[in-house]
Design goal:
This protein is mainly beta. The chain is built from 1 helix and 31 strands. The chain folds into 2 domains: 262 residues, no CATH class; 102 residues, Sandwich (Immunoglobulin-like), CATH 2.60.40.10. Helices cover 1% and strands 46% of the residues.
């Protein structure tokens, strides 16, 4: 950490090879299960570099992510053991002001003398939003290393719309070998909800190019004499499976490694999925009223587990206002809140129910009656 203080000026100019645009002839395909760069989760900021030897760091330049983003970080290095001692963030000012977000290790994988490790931080906070051309308030993601390395680097990507609660779904790694084109690097099949973020990255010390999976968008190819890196992302359209696969080029036998993870989208709204139905006074409304949390694209947000409260919206009582009884606040399970014992005591027509939960939009039910009308 003291050494980084000596490199404060370097934050303005970078080091190693930064990520560049993809070649024009390697654009994404468009299969139906992935829509790149669209959906309830969107890419906010991304950058990266190679050429690190005693510590690995990168700032978002010149524009910081937004508060509440999820940051996915992959570190790369020459070596076969995990030498990352800790991952943390701070500002790029002279004091290296600590920011304090938590970066959780998701996967570490190595093959062919190179390694990579992916970390995730969600709902990031405590840094200024905006653009800082002078480089004094940029958010820096930093890894201290247990030992020096020959060559290393980093990709950082901030995404908006990722769930802050139980965001991580499936994740896995894979390795393999090849000697020609195409050598298929297969990260394996992962289950994903609609609207989920699919983050996938492949790496090789001996390959000379990897074509990204169809339907994905590149976060920027990085190359050095020691490694070739291809990080990509896509957004799942509907609930199903996704299988990131790259076509590698090898001139001679070599190894590839791959890692993929799924992050769930944040809930933005509630919706009645089983509406209240007409029943008699003080009788339990059947079937049970059910409410589902949805993301911005209208897909179920299965990571949502918050409390949902139900109440009478329009009170249709004929002689006097009706009163709702039963369990009126329940915690959602996999994004679904079920109210099994609701009752209203007064005859009436045109009743509605409303549901609310902190931080997301509520909903109102269809009209229904209490009594035979």
């Amino acid at each position: 950490m003291k050494r980084f203080g000596l490199l404060a000026v370097a934050l303005l100019v970078g080091c190693g090879e930064t990520m560049g645009p993809r070649p024009a002839d390697r654009g994404p395909g468009t299969p139906s299960f992935i829509v790149a760069a669209s959906g309830p989760i969107t890419l906010d900021q991304t950058t990266g570099k190679l050429g690190e030897t005693t510590t690995i760091w990168q700032d978002f330049r010149p524009t910081n992510p937004h508060l509440g983003d999820a940051i996915v970080v992959t570190f790369y290095w020459v070596g076969s053991t995990n030498i990352i001692a800790r991952v943390y963030d701070h500002l790029s000012d002279a004091a290296q002001t600590p920011v304090g977000n938590t970066y959780e290790l998701v996967d570490f994988v190595n093959a062919g003398g190179v390694s990579m490790a992916t970390y995730v931080a969600t709902n990031v906070q405590n840094f200024p939003e905006g653009t800082f051309p002078n480089g004094d308030q940029n958010l820096v993601v930093h890894a201290d290393l247990a030992a020096p390395i020959q060559d290393g680097g980093i990709t950082i990507a901030a995404f908006r719309g990722v769930s802050a609660v139980a965001p991580l779904a499936a994740h896995q790694t894979a390795t393999g070998t090849g000697s020609s084109y195409p050598t298929v690097a297969d990260a394996g099949e992962l289950a994903a909800d609609g609207g989920a973020l699919v983050y996938a990255v492949t790496m090789s010390s001996s390959g000379r190019g990897a074509e990204m999976p169809p339907g994905f968008t590149s976060l920027g190819t990085q190359t050095s004499p020691s490694m070739w890196i291809e990080p990509d992302y896509g957004i799942q359209v509907g609930t199903g499976t996704v299988r990131p696969q790259w076509n590698w080029s090898f001139d001679s036998p070599g190894s590839w490694l791959a890692s993929a993870l799924i992050l769930r989208p944040a809930a933005t709204q509630l919706a009645f999925t089983v509406q209240p139905s007409t029943t008699m006074p003080l009788m339990t409304i059947q079937p049970a009223v059910t409410v589902t949390a949805l993301d911005a694209a209208g897909d179920p947000a299965t990571s949502f587990t918050g409390p949902v409260t139900i109440a009478i919206g329009h009170n249709g009582g004929l002689l006097m206002p009706g009163t709702l009884s039963g369990t009126r606040t329940v915690n959602a399970v996999n994004g679904v809140a079920t109210f099994p014992d609701l009752r209203i005591d007064q005859l009436g027509n045109g009743y509605t129910l409303t549901v609310t939960s902190s931080g997301i939009a509520g909903a109102e039910s269809r009209t229904f009656n209490i009594g035979v009308f």
